[in-house]
Amino acid sequence: MHPIVKLVAQRLSLGILLLFAASALLFGLTEILPGDAAQAQLGQSATPENLANLREEMGLNRPALTRYAEWIGGILTGDMGNALSNKLPIGEQIGKRLGATMFLAFWAALISVPVAILLGLVAVRYLNRWPDKVISGSTLAAISLPEFMIAYILIFVFAVKLGWAPSFANVPPDMPLLEKLHSIALPIAVLTMVVLAHMMRMTRAAILNVMQSAYIETAELKGLTSFEVIRKHAFPNAVAPIVNVVMINLAYLVVGVVVVEAVFAYPGMGQYLVDAVVKRDVPVVLTSGIIFSAVYIILNMIADIVSILSNPRLRHPK
Amino acid sequence: MSNELKLLSTKVTAGTMTRREFMSKAAALGVTAAVASTILADAAYAAGPVKGGTFRMGVSGGESTNSQDPATWASDAPLAGGFIWGEALVYPGPNGLEPRVAESWEGSNAAKTWRFKVRKGITFSDGTAVTAEDVLATMQRHSNEDSKSGALGIMKGIESMRTDGDVFELTLVIGNADLPYLMADYHLIIQPNGGFDNPAAAIGTGLYTLETDEPGVRMTFKKNPNHWAADEMGHYDEVELIVLNDATARTAALQSGQVDTVNRVEPKIAKLLGRAPTIDVKTTSGRGHYVFIAHVDTAPFDNNELRLALKHAMNRQEMVDKILQGYGSVGNDMPINEAYPLFDETIPQRSFDLEKAAAHYKASGHDGSPIILRTADGAFPGAVDAAALFQQTCQAAGIPLEIKREPNDGYWSEVWNVQPYCASYWGGRPVQDQMYSTAYLSSADWNDTRWKRPEFDAMLLEARAELDEGKRKEIYSKMGRMLNEEGGVMVPMFNDFVDGLSTEIQGWETNPSGPQMYWYAFAKTWKA
Predict the structure, then answer these.
(1) At a CB cut-off of 8 Å and minimum separation 6, what does B208 contact?
(2) DSSP H or E stretch at residue B325
(3) For B75-85, what is each residue's pLDDT tens digit?
(4) Which among A86, A97, A98, A264 is the top mutation candidate for probing chain B, defined by the most B β-carbons within 10 Å of its own β-carbon?
(5) ipTM > 0.95 for the complex
(6) By the 8 A CB rule, do B472 and B341 touch?
(7) Spatial separation of the C-alpha atoms in residues B290 and B339, rounded to whole Å
(8) C-alpha torsion B21→B26→B29→B31, nearest 10
(9) Which of A47, A160, A275 lies at the smallest CB-CB distance from B64?
(10) pTM of the predicted model, to two decimals?
């Protein structure tokens, strides 16, 4: 069997085990949290009677293990069940939410990844000169600001003062693509600014590391322009760490943007998960958690595979 | 105002003159722009509502876990949406109860029997006729022994319910002159067969019908042309409710004109926001209040001297100024204020008096161990800061108050109504009886101060069945004074509702029952 195929198979089976472990951990943690879904729903209007009736209806009186086993059984047969809180099918809700999250992550990645790598290359080319300093300074400044702060500044300037873009990202399913993009322009800008520095700095560092090598000197001596040297010799050798950091940032764009979602009232997965935790809607928490874990596992796997493919020594092990 | 201007302004409203022309003519007459604008607005108001357009509300208090089942409603967005697609028997308007599904109602038998006449010829949004049976089923769903409804707490003491032709009749164990107010509760939206079949179908008798529903994101509504009052209310063609939980997102949406109104403007920015030329900030003094609640049956709070010491050590005015930024009024250690009917203004205001506080503290004989006050950001906006202010003034009186900050998450299940002394809030109720029955009756589930006084209960029941308003007012006054002197509830302040509104919106009126004209802005306002 080709080593890559073997690796993918290994990683996939390990990933599935990890997902089970993650779901068990999530379930355990939500059980520890004080209160339950019935109490969270009734809040200040809880009386002993309606609390007991609601618990009965939600099935919260059954043992924890039974509830967990039921959920696992459902997931394995492709039935995510209904939310405890509003009884809507979880599959359908997650479908919409995940779609919105992926839409935002996709466009943010499409802009930020190429820009970050390009800026990294430019920074190396003009190392320690003003373009390098401007690029590093501005991206580091952006990453140092909390993301909600960047969001508020952009909203103030572009939505309130100039009126170029909407201040909250309303994307009903029937909206045409261009309007949707206009609607999420500010969140994309914020996310781009947040992830740019990390990827740019890693690109810069990885390439600089390679630039010290003897073969780079050889390439320079045979008369290649500095961009050619970077493109042909330095970049391919620096791909592994860059891909790793790109994947980490992609994972962040999918699972870690709850603050940006809140500021722009964007209906993504993060807000869905947070609401479910607050309302102790365990099936929703578990299902969303599993999806987030799967995203991490898959992106990490891709990063590993790309690193191996980019390195002939790993590609053809003895 | 000169007659000439009046004439001009009617021309504008009639559409024969543009706003710009009016402003320049007004300037020529030596009238400032601000005054001219007001004249124009008055003229628009006098001309009556304008039909059409979309009303867009930015609302805080919506979650992706929300359902359209009225029994589950506990936050602003779902109940605001519910008022748009549905109606209860009655609605608490600014000047008393307004009829909705019930055309009229009357009590008899010492306020024990209540008959609600169901409006003739009205239909649900699915086209079926509304009958008294639907009303009966609705009340049963919220009050029977299987009820999971948030309204179960107020649906107690019902002896029997039945229908009689187009009349829904309800008989109570003990008479209650305020019963119609209980029927105005937002959970009690009348649904076909009471919602037993499909509680979350959002089929009701409202001015609009629900078009799209994305829980925690948005709802959109279309005008219901068959509504019985479609000509007088519901001037917009469409209504859109957008959930904006982040305070800055709400104000930005209002400032950039993406929404026409927002609820819960933060007090600290309300004054600044009101200066924007296209935005009005509307405040409504309501019945909601912030409280520090002590269990009167738990040491050391079982000692009234200690409770009085704490009450006197509280600088209420400072809290109104610093926590509410002036958008509120001082409380008087009772859950009632002048926004309630039959309020007695002569009850003396508790003074902030450190000497008295110190004297009462000394008289209590407290051993000097720390008195623990639990608080959390979620207890009420600014609860942690209010507790800190309270601690400082207590210190000045020699009272060892200690603050314990609790997590927001789980506060209502683990701290409130469990721990002996904590911060909390009450949204207020339409009438005194309901407020007292909810939290100060011995048998009340939410008796969060453990206030159990047979004489207080007796007065409450006496007032409830008393039809003479003068006598009721007298009883309520006694009850208020009793809580003020001996109760475990410490009320530093009553909070105003602060709403933001585009200047385009006309017809706003304040309703002390809640924010956003108690969620009826969609029905009673219009775009000029």
Answers:
(1) B84, B85, B221, B222, B223, B224, B234, B238, B239, B522
(2) none
(3) 899 999 999 99
(4) A86
(5) no
(6) no
(7) 15
(8) -160
(9) A275
(10) 0.86
